[in-house]
Write a structure and sequence with these properties.
By secondary structure, this protein is mainly alpha-helical. It is built from 7 helices and 2 strands, in the order ααααααββα. The radius of gyration is 15 Å and the shape is globular.
Length: 150
């Protein structure tokens, strides 16, 4: 998926998992772009190229940072030092990214197991799934924002 769709779906996931906390939505959206740190050509990879390049060379794309292990370890590292909405929103945002990539391609979800899991799609299906996901996420964000204001 595109980085913007990952961000939007991470916001929805963070909002839902933290019981409607807008801070959970923000952290979920930010965390949802972290898994692409394994791709030096991605938005986050270009920003953190000195980290992204070695991760890509050692592990490849859609492997360790696209795994359940990565999401759980990130939450476990944050847990003792942060409030619940931070570690929960972060882990959930990462999982939203991974699940989004599984809809448009394959990831090593159970890394270090070698099997890739997901749906292989062509470019047109990738775009359709990405846009539908973005529209649904925007609808959710707009709906919950309006509901809060009323």
């Amino acid at each position: 998926m595109e980085w913007s769709t990952h961000c939007l779906s991470g916001m929805v996931a963070g909002h839902l998992i933290t019981g409607g906390d807008w801070r959970g939505a923000i952290i979920g959206g930010i965390a949802a772009v972290i898994p692409d740190l394994d791709e030096p050509k991605s938005k986050v990879g270009r920003l953190f190229w000195p980290v992204a390049y070695p991760i890509n060379k050692v592990f490849g794309h859609r492997t360790i940072t696209h795994s359940l292990l990565f999401a759980v370890l990130t939450g476990m590292i944050l847990y003792p030092f942060t409030q619940t909405w931070v570690w929960l929103g972060t882990s959930t945002g990462i999982l939203a990214h991974i699940l989004g990539d599984m809809l448009t391609g394959r990831v090593k979800f159970f890394y270090p197991a070698p099997k890739f899991i997901g749906i292989s799609t062509n470019r047109m299906m990738f775009i359709i799934i990405d846009r539908i996901t973005a529209i649904l996420a925007l609808w959710y964000i707009a709906h919950t924002t309006i509901s809060t204001l009323i």
